[in-house]
Amino acid sequence: MTAPETTAAAGDTGRRPTPISRAMETIRALREELAALRGGRTVAVVGAGLRAPGGVGDLDGYWRLLADGTDAVRPIPEQRRHPFGAAWDEVPHRGGFLDEVLDFDAPFFGIAPREARSLDPQHRLLLEVAWEALEDAGIPAADAARRNCGLYVGVTGQDYREWMPGEPDAYWATGNGHCFAAGRLAHTLDLTGPVAALDTSCSSSLLAVHMARQALAAGECDLALAGGVNLMLSPRGTEFVARTGALSPDGVCRPFDAAANGFTRAEGCGVVVLKRLADAVRDGDRVLAVIHGSAVNHDGAASGFTAPNVLAQTRLIERALADAGLSPGDVGYVEAHGTGTSLGDPIEVEALAEALGRPAGAAPVLLGSAKANLGHAESAAGVLGLLKAVLSLRHRAVPPVAHFTTLNPRIDLGGTGFRVPGKLEPWPAGAGAYAGVSSFGMSGTNTHVILGPAETPAAPETVAVAGFEVSARTPAALRAYAALLADRLATVEDEDYPAFAYTLTHGRAALATRVRVAAADRAQARAALLALAADRECPQVTPVDAAAPRGFAELPRRVISLPAYPWERRRCAPAAPDARP
Predict the structure, then answer these.
(1) Per DSSP, which regions of 302-429 are E strands?
(2) Whole-number pLDDT of residue 38
(3) What is the C-alpha to C-alpha distance for residues 237 and 496, in angstroms, rounded to an integer?
(4) Helix, strand, or coil here: 418?
(5) What residue spans of 357-459 are helical by DSSP H?
């Protein structure tokens, strides 16, 4: 062999893989595979709709209530007593009540009056809030129908069955029942992805979020709606809960407090719009927060059928952390289940301390529970807690826990790093950037979700705006909507006017009564909207045929929050006797 040939051979030997290099390549490939898997499981919250006690109808209103430490619990409103009358006096009747739940814009959804009267108000509320969530995401319902959109709904109560006059007909049969809550919504919005109604009592809506995330990760859908609803429409449901001994005798929910004596029931509805994060970034969506991990388990053979299990809760949180690829120190806030019961709160905090506790001197973890403000919304509680965490991440602040003055003596926070805020606090310096949300069902099913903040969006580019479109089902609704939008424009910055125009034109459904507004700037737009609201002639406002293509040049996709559609609600309830037992 010549010298050059020997050198070449030696060079080939130097490039030949060694056991160590092969192992390093395997590790690198596994890390890339794990990152890809986690990337597919990372889900963006791109829109939200909600109703909560205290007149809350959007995220901004929810944040104000939470940040102010408001207690929205009150005695049952007089108009809500019918048709059961004095029967409400026989049960604890302080609660987190919504203002009015029997009114509904049935024609908007193409539902006949007789059918609407038979339709559980929980199903009606889901229709409205899901529509609002999609529009908050800048995704018209027709666009969602063209995608592979999944739907997961948490629902438990069936109080409306007790309103049934006489024997049930077909409308009552399909207007009540859990499966029809999800089925009706999917049918109305023409959603063809996976659809399911879930009932695990208090953890139902957070489980819905977990299931939607799983479906997105598995490729079963490319867009998903998830949430839950709860209404108190009969005193009998409260009577059943009262028999468990879990209700507060004075109707005040005091999570983590020494005076905690149970929870008070509440109503609410929340729906989030979810997409894989990579898809949301690709599509230019506004991201409210990012779901990095989630887990679900059961208490198993706990000390009692409805008793919580500290070991199960600990494992749950540890699994959610592992799913997110995070460590305990990455979590700076936990929106706890926190019902204010003497047994549940100490067990929950013990599990949190075991899973997330940190050494002395480390940055604290703040604990919260929206039930102190709202009461326990049961099958809607998990998603309302999730939205509180979304808002805390967005505002980089944690609201106070209402009614908290003295720590429950059964709860030991010593050496855990946990703290219960008594006022609105900035996100603690040096604390983990993520938030955990827990929801535990009386049936034993537990869910935990871990959220992170959205990335700060890039500064908006300067673009010329020719105008925008706005539409509603009827002329009266269009005028009402124009008034709401004019008020909103008063608070929109000039640099956000292109986003306002884009969101209205391309992020809202094109309905039957439709106009184009020629307006190059915010001032012109507001003047035109005020004229439209007052039904005055305005040369800038031009009627458009409902079937016409979208007008104006395409703007860059940028979504901002706008007022929800002005529903034209009418009372939808069966004729009922003056009182029922």
Answers:
(1) 331-335, 365-368, 397-398, 418-419, 425-426
(2) 54
(3) 47
(4) strand
(5) 371-374, 381-395
- Chain position carrying tokens 């008034």: 483
What is the spatial distance between Cα 225 and Cα 234, in angstroms, rounded to a whole number?
Answer: 28
H/E element, 230: strand 223-230
The tokens describing 226, both together, are 């998830």
Q: CA-CA distance, 330 to 417, in Å (whole number)?
A: 13
Amino acid at position 472, single letter: A
Q: Provide the 10 A C-beta neighbour count for residue 443.
A: 16
- φ, ψ dihedrals at 76, nearest 5°: -60, 130
Which position has the token pair 């007022």? 563
Single-letter code of the amino acid located at 40: G
Residue 443: DSSP 8-state: T
User: How far, in Å, CA of 260 to CA of 257, rounded?
Assistant: 5
Residue among 452, 40, 48 at smallest CA distance from 278: 40
What residue type is assigned to position 12 of the chain? D
CA–CA distance, 557 with 555 (Å, rounded to integer): 6
> How far apart are alpha carbons 11 and 6 in whole angstroms?
9
CA 328, CA 317: separation in Å to the nearest integer?
A: 9
Task: Report d(CA 281, CA 348) in Å as an integer.
Answer: 36
Please count the residues of the chain.
Answer: 581
Six-digit token pair at 495? 């640099």
Long-range contacts of 495-498 (CB under 8 A, 24+ apart): 495/460, 495/462, 496/460, 496/560, 497/465, 497/521, 497/522, 497/525, 498/460, 498/463, 498/465, 498/555, 498/556, 498/558
Q: Are 546 and 511 in contact (CB under 8 A)?
A: yes
pTM: 0.92
Average pLDDT across each block of 10 residues of the chain; the chain has 581 residues. List them in order: 41 64 70 57 97 98 98 96 94 95 97 95 98 98 96 97 86 93 97 98 98 98 98 96 94 97 97 98 98 97 86 98 97 97 94 90 93 98 98 98 97 94 96 97 96 93 95 98 98 96 96 97 98 97 90 91 98 68 47
Euclidean distance between CA atoms 572 and 393, whole angstroms: 39
- Residue 269 to residue 534: CA distance in whole angstroms: 33
C-alpha to C-alpha distance for 403 and 261, rounded to whole angstroms: 12
Please give the structure tokens belonging to residue 536.
């005055």
3-class SS of residue 479 = helix
Range list of β-strands (E), 60-147? 74-75, 94-95, 103-104
Please report the pLDDT score of residue 168 as a whole number.
Answer: 81
| Burial grade of 187 (CB within 10 A; 0-12, 13-18, 19 or more) | exposed
Cβ burial, residue 20 (10 Å; 0-12/13-18/19+): exposed
Tokens of 519: 């307006």
How many Cβ atoms sit within 10 Å of the Cβ of residue 131?
A: 25
Q: How far apart are CA 123 and CA 155, in angstroms?
A: 9
- Which tokens belong to 34? 């794990």
The token duo for 552 is 């104006």
